[in-house]
């Protein structure tokens, strides 16, 4: 068999194998911090009985966009901290790290309202928290 055809078959087989492994392994491969979504990270940090409320607030505030910025106020990140630099208390990587932002937001909700559930109750009445 000519070398060109052999390479074509080998490349096609490798690509098919990689695609199959990727599809099969997608559900079983452990999520790494960099590959996990902010929602997955929150599910590991926020208490289960507070997660739905936490998620509602973050969804409304930033649509889970780590770099969301309010053009009027300058509020920043998942929780729309104002100023965003407040989140530095949770880590120097606050501008881009969802874990840092989630930890800060959970602490903020617990400190100011008592819990994410209480923060969500406030948000529903005032449309801010």
Automatic annotation (TrEMBL):
<dbReference type="InterPro" id="IPR008258">
    <property type="entry name" value="Transglycosylase_SLT_dom_1"/>
</dbReference>
<dbReference type="InterPro" id="IPR023346">
    <property type="entry name" value="Lysozyme-like_dom_sf"/>
</dbReference>
<dbReference type="Pfam" id="PF01464">
    <property type="entry name" value="SLT"/>
</dbReference>
<protein>
    <submittedName>
        <fullName>Transglycosylase SLT domain-containing protein</fullName>
    </submittedName>
</protein>
<feature type="signal peptide">
    <location>
        <begin position="1"/>
        <end position="35"/>
    </location>
</feature>
<keyword id="KW-0732">Signal</keyword>
<feature type="domain" description="Transglycosylase SLT">
    <location>
        <begin position="53"/>
        <end position="120"/>
    </location>
</feature>
